[in-house]
Amino acid sequence: MNQQQLKKIAYARSGDKGSSCNIGVIAFTKSGYEFLEKELTSKKVNSFFSKFPVSKTTRYELPNLLAFNFVLEGILDGGGSRSLRIDSQGKALGQAILEMEILIPEELVTEANLINKP
Amino acid sequence: MKLPFRIANAQGFWGDRPNAASTLLKLEPKIDFLTLDYLAEVSLSIMAIQKEKDKSAGYARDFVSVVRSLIPFWKKGSKVKIVTNSGGMNPQACANECLQVLQKEGIKNIKIGILGGDDVTQILKKSPKNKLYKNLETGKSLKTVVEKLVTANAYLGAEKIVDLLNTGADIVITGRIADPSLTVAPAVYNFNWDWKDYDKLAQATVAGHLIECGTQVTGGISTHWLSLDRKKDFGFPIIEMNEDGSFIITKPKKTSGEVSERTVKEQLVYEIGDPQKYISPDVNVSFLNLKLNDEKNNRVNISGASGAPPPETLKVSATYKDGWKCEATLAIFGDRAEEKAKLTGELILKRIENAGFKPERSIIECIGSGGVVPHLFETPKNLRECMLRIAVADQNKEKLEYFSKEIAPLVTSGPQGVTGYISGRPKVRPIYSYWPCLIDKSLLSNEISLIST
Fold it and tell me: Quick one: CA dihedral B191, B196, B200, B203, positive or negative?
């Protein structure tokens, strides 16, 4: 097990709804999904973004798609028109979460690599 | 009934590629319907201001150019129909303009259906204490902003579009409409589904959700973008809908990008909340039994969406005037670039404060040293260049105008390596803040009409 970035076993997409941002995180493999079900908790995601004005983080599971949907309320500081940040719509937060470092078993990375080859 | 029934998206937002519609028809002449989405959360406030200045404005003019670009296809006998929310704040004016263009070109027998009635501003203004009009995010009463309300539009569903299609409309122009309903309407029209056939409506809603952002489902903003084929333009998405609601999502041949399990999954989770309650005016959808079958060659089969009755309320997207904002950027190059950028930003804010123009809100970002997602990652050491971005907001426009004039002087008084002041003083722009709330369906009156060339 090594500290590795989430992107080794998952991909993502983020977008806005008012002040909230949702980040969909999709595991490459079923075993990756099961691992993340335990490791990528709403608490962990919330603390990853702790420097942002997040009022609440909710995780929804979509096991049929090997995906999670994280809804981070308040994170966009007013969102689209009101926020002063350059990423006022949270477009970059999907890429950001993929850089999160977690302890990942090596076999999960190997498995994901097999699928992820273009 | 047409089988397979093809619905394509040719516009994901106001500003998307203008030739998407004509390119789609050139590559795939057998498309039955084009859907074009022009309205993001605050687009209508821009259109409302345009209409205030000019009674015949307030819609997406770009759509008129799209209609013009399709004239050669209609002349050659194309039967393609269109559903779009390009009407914005003024569907009637948008339709009139399209009609004129078609008539000028001698196109006969094209009927344009117009759907209005989504503007609920007056209804909201009458009862600002109504609990349904509370801000869905903050819980605040509408009373707090009612004086500053600019727009309030309910997201309408597919039903009245289907009525218009059934009376022969070839083009339907609406104002605010739930994005997926642009796809649900053609499907219901073609298959004559019952409005209680919730599972089928759910499938069509998923199809609409997948294509509403144009190329976002065919490789655009994909995590895998770098490894995708980009030789040609990414194709806009096409749905091949079956009578039972199952469908294939694909894109035109001879286009780049990708439609695969990974691009479809990414778009499925785009801008959703609880995947068990994806609520539209047509149906309440659950994604939890969705099945994806990647048939390769850019074809993915999707089934399994389940539907339940929609709520008695509609979502309203309202906006209110919330002061002004202004943002300035300057590139900083050279030794200790980040430090210089920060100090320059602070200097400006101090300078306007000293002049008595301190803005209510301000932010300094160093793009290149983690400014896009602040505090998440370690900043690179000895950064040689970065972009300084200063953004300020205030209710008082005058303060921001003062700020705007203080950027250029940095070119001669800032650190060595300040560059990139090329587009003049930054603009002071109005802020239209977002006010999401609900409304009782029964308060709305639909306004539908049909005009013909």
Answer: positive
Tell me whether A87 touches chain B (CB under 8 Å): yes
Which residue in chain A has the smallest CA separation from B289? A64
In a domain? residue A117? no
The total of structural domains in chain B comes to 2
Of chain B, the end-to-end C-alpha distance in Å amounts to 25
CATH assignment at residue A61: 3.30.70
Residue A118 pLDDT greater than 60, yes or no: no
Per-residue pLDDT reduced to its tens digit, B49-69: 999 899 999 999 999 999 999
Q: Is residue B397 part of a domain?
A: yes
Report yes or no: B450 and B329 within 8 Å, Cβ to Cβ. no
Q: Please indicate, yes or no, if residue B79 is contained in any of the structural domains.
A: yes
Burial class of residue B106, CB neighbours in 10 A (0-12, 13-18, 19+): exposed
> Between chains, do B373 and A118 touch, taking CB under 8 Å as contact?
no
Same domain for B358 and B239:
no
Report CB contact under 8 Å: B221, A93.
no
Write out the residue range of the structural domain in which residue A10 sits: 2-76+89-110
Q: Which residue of B has its CA nearest to A74?
A: B137
- Do B169 and B92 reside in the same domain of the chain? yes
CB nearest B275 (choices: A69, A81, A98): A69
Cα B210 from Cα B298, distance rounded (Å):
14
pTM for this predicted structure:
0.97
Sign of the four-CA dihedral B82, B8, B46, B70 = negative
Structure confidence at residue A2 as a pLDDT band (50, 70, 90): confident
Q: Which residue of A has its CA nearest to B265?
A: A65
pLDDT exceeds 80 at position A117: no
- Distance, in Å, from the CA atom of B190 to the CA atom of B165, rounded to the nearest integer, reads 9
The domain of B200 spans 5-118+155-311
